[in-house]
Fold each of these.
Amino acid sequence: QVQVVESGGGLVQPGGSLRLSCKASGIIFSVYTMYWYRQAPGKQRELVARITSGGSTNYADSVKGRFAIARDNAKNSVYLEMNNLKPEDTAVYYCTYNPEEWGQGTQVTVSS
């Protein structure tokens, strides 16, 4: 059974940092592109970042230069380092290997 579990969300002040983690099981993790999406209240889910099996990365324009995605295939894990957070980054963040399957996500709230 495939399982993807996100963690690391929380409440942070503007300008602060958070590191999200995602651990996958039940898949051959190393062959998959991994994605981080987010969904803010009242908005559609949007792609934040992705990392291919070879380590190539892509980012949404809104997070370029502030967020960094990384993966550790030995740990079946992918990470999202978020710096200089803004209130508009507030959302539920989801990790996935298949953008048609979603887990619980982790809430990130940026507020003073």
Amino acid sequence: QVQLVESGGGLVQAGGSLRLSCATSGINFSRKAMVWYRQAPGKQRELVASITMGGGTNYASSVKGRFTISRDNTKNTLYLQMNSLRPEDTAVYYCNSQWSPLAWGQGTQVTVSS
């Protein structure tokens, strides 16, 4: 059974940091490019960061230099290190496969206070 379980969100002040995790099961994780998305209230879901099977990364311009996506293929887990958080980063964060989307997990709420 395919599962994506996001965790690590919370309430943080502007300038703070959080590390999100996405534990996966039921997929061949090491063979998939993975992505983090986020969805703020009243807005469309947007792509935040992606990572290839080989570890190549790309970021949305709004988070470049502040966020770092990484993966641990031995743990089938995807990460997102978020530094210098801003109120506009407030959203529910989701992970997924980039090219063969899977059933969405529940996401993890990130709230950044000013």
